[in-house]
Amino acid sequence: MALTREKILYQGAEAKIVLTEYLGRKAVQKRRLHKRYRIKEIDEQLISLRTKEEAKLMAAARKQGVSVPIIYDVDLKNGVITMEYLEGSRVKDIFNLLGDDERRDLCYRIGESIAKLHNGDIIHGDITTSNMILYEDRLYFIDFGLGEINSEVEAKGVDLHVLMEAIASTHAKYTGYFTYVIEGYQNIYHGDVKAIKSKMEEIIRRGRYR
To answer: What's the predicted TM-score (pTM) here?
Structure first.
């Protein structure tokens, strides 16, 4: 049955996520929003560049073995990425409902996926349980809008620290499960895990003494 109306799934400051249809199938579009305060030409260039970079990061993540939605179309002029609609659940919505073993396994898998990204120097930029979807027992990462290619230990430490903070604030009862994220991460990451752990500790100290 064809979709008769589009539905906004999420509206943010930079983009809106819309459930729509593409070639007869359910799809999601990420539509970057124009900023009236910016000069029109600069605004268009920025939107085009950021759309292109996000699509490239998603493709790079897939090459690293990380599940991401399939991209159907990229419209650089209008700043729109059309991609596969995943029928699964946001990790944020199910994390607290899982059994202990399931939650531990999921955290371990999250760590493995982050390590795969970091092995390719891909920084997600906003790793939270809101930006992961569990679908048919596969863990998908979404929303690479704040991502970049960066080989620095600092960037990778920050990436992991963002998730640690997200779990602490959204799933406070299960803060300790971040340990399993690190276990999964160090099982897959090819670089110096100790250096990244030290960087995370440094970031935590900075936050304390700000």
So the answer is: 0.93
| Domain termination site, one of 58, 84, 110 | 84
Which strands form 89-90's sheet, in the order they lie side by side? 89-90, 132-135, 138-141
- Active-site residues, by number, are 126
The CATH number given to whatever domain includes residue 197 is 1.10.510.10
pLDDT in tens, 162-187: 999 999 999 999 999 999 999 999 99
- Is residue 87 helix, strand or coil? coil
Q: 155 and 180: one domain?
A: yes
Average pLDDT over residues 141-170: 97
The residue ranges of DSSP E strands in the chain, in sequence order, are 7-11, 15-22, 25-32, 71-75, 80-84, 89-90, 122-123, 132-135, 138-141, 148-149
- Last residue within a domain, chosen from 84, 103, 128: 84
Q: Cα dihedral sign for 91, 94, 97, 98?
A: negative
